User: Fold this.
Amino acid sequence: MTKGCLDRLDAHIWQNTDFTDEEKTRSHLSANPLSSDNCLFYTRAVIALLMSAAFTYETLQYKFPVEYKFFTFWGFALTEAYFVAVMAAYARNAYRKHKGLEAPSRMWKVVSSLFHFAVTFEVVITLIYWTLLWPYEKVNSPLAHIFYSTCLVHLLPLTYLSIDFCFNSIHIEWNFVWPLIVTLFLYGQVNIIVTASTKTPVYPGLDWNCWLSWTVGLACLPFGFAAFWCLHRLSDWKYRKLGITGQLVS
Assistant:
């Protein structure tokens, strides 16, 4: 029964009739007309190395068990996972070609899923940080922390993902909005539990003790929904403008 439910969910998310099976299974490794496959590969390889170095520094310097409470870390970790997964997909693709295996691998679903999560979460994180949290941090934090927080954590991940988005052929599927909303909801539960157990808000003002705090917290769900809708429409526009596929994306 569980397998049947997962199969139906898989079909609901990925069976987009605007694309052929071949287009979907190679989209995660294919460049769009703005670049070439080789250029995309080397760009991703460099970004994967830079993200791995930054992620290693993050986990060693700030200790992972503490960082999970910050949504920033979720986005940072998903961005790292995406670039590692895409490099693993290149390696797997080379291996399959070497062995003469023609059947498509499901690795494209892993890579595409991580891209959906990472780029949406980083848009949400970056916008919220620079509009709501940066004014507080620049007054109350030392200069070294400001440099680290702004450049390494709240600027580079979205920059790297934006570069990848400009050159890749991954289409942002609208039906993926539901896994994203569920994940945002789960993070909200983590935030509430950590705040209640430590008696200290994870983020300034978000103490879950008044209607205003709950309003701000719950507003993240429609905000995430809106961010994903904008990314989906931008992805549609990119496909039409660049002629990535011969069919129009609805």
Remarks:
- The chain has a mean pLDDT of 83.
- The chain has eleven helices and no strands.
